[in-house]
Amino acid sequence: MAEYNHSEIEKRWQKHWRETAAFRTPPAGESGEAERFYCLEMLPYPSGRIHIGHVRNYSIGDAVARNRRMRGYEVMHPIGWDALGLPAENAAIEQQTHPAEWTRKNIDAMRAQLQRLGFSYDWDREIASYQPEYYGWNQWFFLRFLENDLAYRKDGPVNWCPSCATVLANEQVEEGRCWRCDSEVEERRLAQWFYRITRYAEELLDGLDGLTEWPERVIAMQRNWIGRSRGTEIAFAIDGPEEAAPSDGQLRIFTTRVDTIFGATFMVVAPEHPFVRELLDGGELGADASMDIEELRAEVERLAAMPRRARRGEDIDKHGVFTGSYAINPFNGERLPIWVANFVLMDYGTGAIMAVPAHDERDHTFATKYDLPVRPVISLATEDPEPDGGDLPDLPFSEEGHLLSNCGEFSGLGTADARATMTAHAKTLGFGHGAIDYKLKDWGLSRQRYWGTPIPIIHCPACGVVPVPDEDLPVVLPADAPLDRGQGSPLERVESFVNVDCPRCGVAARRETDTMDTFVDSSWYYLRYLSPNDATVPFSKIEGDAWSPVDLYIGGVEHAVLHLLYFRFFCRALRDLGLLSVDEPTRGLLTQGMVTKDGAKMSKSKGNTVDPDEMVERYGADTTRLFVLFAAPPVRDLEWDERGVEGCARFLGRVWKLIEGEASSLPPVEAGFGDAGPSLPEPLAQLHRKVHETVRRVTRDVEERLQFNTAIAALMELTNACNTARQAVSIVEAGEHSWVYRLAFERLAVMLSVFAPHIAQELWTTLGHSEDLTRYPWPEYDPSVLQSDEATMIVQVDGRLRGRLVVPTDLADEQRLTEMAMADPVIRAHVEGRQLRRSIVVPGKILNLVTSP
Q: Angle at Cα 628 formed by Cα 38 and Cα 622, nearest 5°?
C-alpha cells in the first residue's frame, strides 16, 4: 500500500486544478442552461498572514461551492483583497515603506497561503481595492451619487478618533469608542462628505422582512440600528430675544408621545442645537435669565464637552442651564422655559425635546434636581379622569392609560386614541404633523488619511465645489505623500496633488484632500468580480443581473451594522441608477463563529494564535480544513484543540488505509453495481443501507442545514461500517457482491471531496477513475434501500437515555415494548427499586419508562 504523503498529494492536485482551470467561471452568456450559484466569503484585509479564522470562513464557502458544482450548478466563487485603510498606512509609517509596497507583498504571501489550502477560487477574477483600476470606480460612483443628491457636503459635528486622527461614521463608534483602536471618540465640527443612506431608511428596514435566509440576530441588529420611531413633529414658537430665535421663530421637536404634551413643563435642547448658537451669537438673553451671556456660554461649552459616550447613557448625571427664553406650547399656550442639558443630543430627533417629567424617567430626574414642575396627565382610571383622583400610579409613569381632565378637549381619551386625534389636530392648525424618525444617520464618508480613495472634487474660488470630469478619472493617490502622524491629511502636503486648475473656469483651485471611508470599497466588490478586467464599466449589467443576488454570503457577525448595512444601501442606490435590477445584494447569509483558544478569541496580543502554515506543514491542508469544519457547527464558536486536529488526521489515515489498501481487490469500474436483492449477505446488506443513509444525511446537512460537522461525522460512521463489514465478509469472500464495497468506497470519496478535496481526488484515481471530482455528479440515494423491517428505538428511564431496542418497524404496543425493554439487564437496573407508573411510546423512535420512588 502506498504511503499517505499529504504534501505530495496536495501539491500535485493543486497544480492539476490550476493547469486545467478547474474552477474557472465563464461569463453568464457562456454558461448555457446551467443554474447559477454565487458563493462568496467576505474578502480579507491583506495584513500579511491569514489566520485560522480565515481558514474556517473559507473552508465553509469552499465546501458549499464544491458541492454546488457537483450538483450541476455554474458556480461563481471569487476572492480579492480589501486593501485600503488605516492599518496599512500605520504599518507603512512604522516600517518606513510605502503602503502600496507593503500591501502588494502581503497579498502575494496570503494568496500563496490560500492556494496552498486548495480553495476552489477562480483566481482569474481576483481584485484588489488599492489598485486605481478598482478605486477609480469608487470615484465614478461618487460622482453619480452627487448628481442624484445621494452625496453631499456639510459642516457639522462629527465623530473624531484622536488616535486614528480621522473622522468615523456613526456605525464605527461602539459605546463611544473607535471600532478599530478602542480610543474614546471626540466630537468636532468639520466640513465632511456624506452618503445619504437615510433616504433608504424605510426601505432598508422593510427589506429585512424578506431576508428569510439571514440570521435573526443580524436582522435584529440592523432593525435596532435603523431605529424607526413613529410619532409627531410639533413646532413651538419661541418667546425670547428676537435675535436668539431661529430664523422661523420656532423650536421643533419630535415625540412619540404627543398624548403627554399637556404635561410638558419645560423644554430641553442639546448644547449643539442651532438655537443655542444663535442665542449666544445674539448676545442678549431674556429678562428671566439668571446669568449673563458669557456665563451661559461657559456653561454650554462645559455641557458640550462631556463625553458623548456618557451623554448617551441612561444613568448619566444630568446637568443643565436655563437660557432665559421660553417656548409656547401650541396646545394650551403655556410658556415653557428652555433649558440646555447634557442628556439631549443632536443625533436623535431634532436635538430638542418637550420635557414631561411625570411620564419620562430622564425628565423626572432632571426636574427633581432643578425643582421644576411635575404635572401628571395620564391615569390608569377610565371613569374618573381628575388630576387628583382616579388611579394615579407612582411617577414617573410611562405606560398607556387615559388622559386626565387637565388635557383640554382631549381629556378622557385613551392614550393611543389621543395620539391620533392630537396629531390630526396639530396638522389641521398647521403647527405639527405625523412623522417618522430614524436613529440611522447619513454615512460620514470623509477620512483625513492617505491610504484611501481620493474624493473626486475640486474646490474652486470662483465656481465652488466642482466634480472631477469622468474623463479625468481615476484621481490617483500620489506616491510621494509624507507618511507620518502629522496633523491633517498627508494629501494636504502634496502640492502637485492639491494644486490644480478648475476644469470649468481654468483658475487655480485645490483638490479635495479627504479620502473615502474604506467601507465604500467593500460595498460593491461582489459586482466587480463579475467584470474584473473591464475598463469601460464598473461591472456588466448583464452579469450583475445574472448573478445577483449572491446566493450565500459568509462572514463575521461583527459586520452586521457596518459592512452589511452599507452593502444593502449600495445595492439599492445602484439599482436606482439603473445599473442593477435587484434590491438586496445577498439572498443567504451565514455568520460563522469565532475561533478561540484557551477560552479567548485568537489574538496576537494574547499570544494564542495558531499559524495555518504550520498546521498545513504538519498535518496537511485537508486535515486542517476538515478540523475547522468538524469541531463545531459553523455558527458556533470553535475552540482550537490540537488533539482534535490529530483526530481528523487519524480519520483521513483510516480512509486512506481502507481505500488504498483494498482498491486492487475491488471489481473493475466497468463492472458497475450489482443487484441488491434478497441474496445480498446481511453484513453487506447493512453496509448497502448505510451507504444510502449516509448520502441522504450528508446531502441534507451540506445543502439544507449547512451543518458540516454532522456531515463529516456521517462519513466517519460510513468508514467504520466499511471496516465492520470487511471483518464479517472480506472483499475477496464477497465475490459477486463485492460491488457493495466499490459503491461504499466511491461514495465515501465523492462526498469527502467537498471537505478534504486532495485526498478524495487521489483516492478517486486509485479507484480507477480518470474524471476530475470537481464537477463529478453528486451521488443520489435510493429511498427504497432505506426501507427496513426493523427500527432502532431509544429507551429512556424518566427522560434519560438508558439503552436502545431493535424492534419490528410496525410494533407500537406499549406492553410488548415495555417487556422487551425490561428484558435488557442494563435498562432493568435503572428501574429496579422504583415503581413503573407508565410507558410513553413514540412509534419507531422512543420508549420512555416513567417511574416513581
A: 85
